[in-house]
Amino acid sequence: MRMLPCADAGLLLEVGSLREVLALADAVRAADFADVLDVVPAARTVLLTTRRGADLEVLRRAVLDLDVEVGAVATADTTVEVPVHYDGPDLAEVAALTGLSAEQVIHAHTNTPWRVAFGGFAPGFAYLAEGDRRLYVPRRAEPRASVPASSVGLAAEFSGIYPRSSPGGWQLIGRTDVVLWDAERDPPALLRPGAVVRFVDAGKRKSTTRPAGEVAAERRDERSDRHIEVLATGALALVQDLGRPGLAANGVGRSGAADRAALRLANRLVANPEEAAGIEITLGGLAVRAGADLPAPLELALTGAAAPATVDGTPVGHRSVITLSAGQTLRLAMPAVGLRTYLAVRGGIDVPEVLGSRSTDVLSGIGPPALTAGTVLPIGRPPTEFPLVDQAPGPAGDDSTVTLRVVLGPRDDWLHDPAGLHGSTWTASDRSNRVGMRLTGGTLRRCRDDELPSEGTVRGAIQVPPGGEPVIFLADHPVTGGYPVIGVVVDADVDVAAQVRPGRSVRLVVVDDGISARG
Fold first, then answer.
1. How far is 323 from 32, CA to CA, in rounded Å?
2. Does residue 309 contact residue 341 with C-beta atoms inside 8 Å?
3. N or C end of the chain: which has fewer CB within 10 A?
4. What is the Cβ-side half-sphere exposure of residue 390, based on CA atoms within 13 angstroms?
């Protein structure tokens, strides 16, 4: 077993086979390590993500002491039939890569049963193994920015189905109408580890159907006395808390506030628990009005990007406690520097939880929908504690080059010159979002052209597609991926990265991980 570093976010354990992966994952779960948040099995690796401040050297030694028994791969007494319209944009490319005709590709895909090996990437996404070996094809050289929901694809030894629209680099051969993920179904995922999957040729598509996995989040219509109404949202406004850890093996990422430190500060200012839900506002533009029947004024705080703010036209401070009385309106302009502003309300935004969190995950679609004008947000019961300060100090923002600390690994050996990453300067692309920040202005040269088996990823991972332009994963990153992660941004600096606007310069500085994680 090799242990590869993921900065201070966790450890990647590499073994030789899928059977070893599943046995190791079972052993780690049984050990129930206190600092381990998620155990993510993949093709040849098990990713352990950890709590802030975890001692990774202690964890490394504990894993080495585990008694791992490798047995037969567990199977489920379930066969799932999946009808497919084989009209995918990459069907001809797959035929060319395999030396088969398009008809032979379809026959190979449908004539051999597949088995669900593990979940990942997104809620409801299953990695299907044991199919026809002739269908082994590489991922696309550059991933698509958006793969249509319900697309059926191939990558390396696996087949899979995208539950919803998302970025992806698999070769797409068709689409299906099955719903792979429904949060109200028990269990939510249609395809469970061990189940047998049989694809069936459904012929040409005759109509457009509801995309699989597009399950609308519940929206609370009733108005409580303690509520705010959204009048305007700007570019994007989302409800966010600190996310939903512990579900990555089911393809459910943690999500949560992109700048966690900013949300924590906003909640502390109004005496909320740090994990209380607030509003994440991208590039200002939010306007909210306190309910007319409010029994007492609301206490609010703004943190993150310093968006100029007013209450009924009167300017109010940033990183300070703001009072909003019945019928009053808070408006935010665009911040001069930074990207995301956070609004906390004493009592927290009290929308329904989805899988234990109120966060909106833009990649998976889990959580409440993006806010729109007219949305009414209930406010929870105020905590018994009261705010201790009226204002919190903070650095003045500027638009100079942002420096991000990076720990090399787990796959820096895929780079021609890993040392060249140190001090390199890039530009944040306008294609960046909560999933990841794309960097332009150069390329990282890979020294290997073979396929990396899919493996778990962490927030802050720097993934390098074959084209060489790196992507830094942010809050809503995929749970697994198949492009090499050559470094991981130090966890505290991922919050800094979340405030980088498109066009801003980003400098990467390589630092030591501080532990001997390789072995």
1. 44
2. no
3. C
4. 3
